[in-house]
Amino acid sequence: MTTRRNVLQTVLGGWALTGGGLGSQLARAALPQGALDSAVMERLPGKQPLIKRSYRPPNFESPLSYFEDAITPNDRFFVRWHLMGIAEVDPREWRLSIGGDAASKPFELTLEQLKNDFDPVEVVAVCQCSGNRRGLSDPHVPGVEWGYGAMGNARWKGARLKDILARAGLSKETVEIAFDGADRPALDVTPDFIKSLPAWKALDENTIVAYEMNGEPLPHHNGYPARLVVPGWTATYWMKQVVSIQALSKPLSNFWMAGAYRVPKGKFAFADRFVSQENETTTPITEIVVNSIITSHTDGARVTRGQPLTLKGIAWDSGAGIRRVDVSRDGGRSWEAADLGTDLGRFSFRPWQTTLTPTETGPLVLMARAMNRQGSTQVSELIFNNPGYHNNVIQAVALTVV
Ligand SMILES: Nc1nc2c(c(=O)[nH]1)N[C@H]1C(S)=C(S)[C@@H](COP(=O)(O)O)O[C@H]1N2
Ligand SMILES: [Mo]
Q1: Whole-number pLDDT of residue 38
Q2: 210 and 306 share a domain?
Q3: Considering the entire predicted model, what is its pTM?
């Protein structure tokens, strides 16, 4: 008989599956059974094993153990593509064209020019898919059935988008800046993946066209040779393999703006609005909601009564910065502050940890809840929405004290 566990073992080869490892992480994610059964670890070229959610197009998430460090290594970083036709970019041939009906001086950049013509800047920022944790939605919703790992945090280096746009002679009529990548639909039925930002967010000094990730060229699957980095906003705007930047005097109207990546108006408290794309009922998703996870322990992990254990995790938000992380050991009735680790910047994962000693044998449920510097905190109940966005429900991990 082939059980899911030995299927995983076969795929993993030498990878050890321990009690606190992948198996229980998948179980904890409480994904719909279909997604659970099909979840396997696989290696894309240049990557460590990632949890495969789909192969064509490639959608692979990081297991929780990869978030042990606040910076996610490039070979452990998740991968999300919408289109089947993913380009192999030759860096000598790659060009970034800047233009649009609201730009009077269109021009092109080679990779060398992108690197040399503009002041390089660095920002540590979380890249999180809007649909991260969608697979935990109850009731179930369609889409890539992500668990917790459709996100990563990296140190990005590149040119400020505002410096690039300053050369293009933007007119006062500019409402949005649109971005296209080198990837293309394989079938005519899928619209090309083109996204836009409101001009104010494109011109924000933290928005960059990045050509380095953690001190190295971007991995192919994370957008080599250059991608947009939009700190604070969900990753749908972080165009990979960007080849075109267009200043528009009218809102971009395509499936990916008008039909997808939108949330019901009034359901979530947003600071950042994308006014030119709002309609009566929905608004484009904008900033990341405050969130945290426990990374040191998974469901069913065995710990010893009377022995101190160190609970660790990460917390993040859209850039206000994390004010505090609290941990509960009584199902959320009382909370104690955890210690915050190194601050790598307001857009980064913030590590946290706390030490506690289990006093009784049996199940011990631990929960972590982050609050940002604006006082926003995680929710206890899912704010249900059909596309399954913005899941920041407080996570609970059930340990076994022996
Ligand atoms: N060219 C291109 N860029 C893209 C996408 C895409 O399909 N094509 N997907 C976006 C979405 S929805 C996400 S979540 C992130 C994923 O980034 P990663 O693959 O580097 O983790 O890329 C964004 N940029
Ligand atoms: Mo995404």
Answers
A1: 53
A2: no
A3: 0.91
